[in-house]
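[RESIDUES AND BACKBONE]
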Amino acid sequence: MTGRAAAADAWIRYRRTARQDGLVPALTLLCETDGGPPRGPGGHMVVPAGVAGADAGDVVTTLTVEDGTVVALRSRAEPPGGSTPWAAWALGVTCLRFGLSERLLDAVLAHLGGRTVGDAKLLHQQMVKGGVAEAVIEQLEIETMLAGATPGDLDGGTLAGLNAQITGTDRMLLRLLGAVSFLVDGPGQVARVSELIADVHFGSAGTGEYGGAA
């Protein structure tokens, strides 16, 4: 494996861990890498309860997900930022969120595949198939952009756009889950925490930290 391929694989692990093991294990892995999590422009961060940095500010809210607990903090220290370079953290967050989106698709396919309408599986209904196909296309586009990426390859604006696309895709998938998406211990809660993480670091204006600088 070449040096660049090895570097890219280091970021794929966040995606892989998120898809296979869930939000808390993947976010814990990310937070424990290269100096810990930086804070967003507003001084906020979202971290698993108990990891390094979880006592670095005032708790805004505590959220329980299917595989553990995360806390949203507002740090008392200024200026916002941490010892992890922004480009590395931004790519790690994006890969992690994409893995969670893939995990959500897996959950949707399992849920729909187990339900029937009359004699037909719900997954085979035309409108449902169309919704799944649309989400898959979005994920393929995101995967293409992230393939082989290392910190600095994608600027802050591009990563912010990818995170917006992940959020949009997750919302499509949650609609396919229906009422199941509202369960506290279900995939819908994880998707909402994932969106919160993106909001903290990328904001709603489509720019990265400090105006999108990589």
Residues 79-83, 205-214 have pLDDT under 50 and may be disordered. The CA atoms of residues 36 and 145 lie 25 Å apart. Strands lie at 44-48, 57-65, 68-75, 116-117, 120-121.
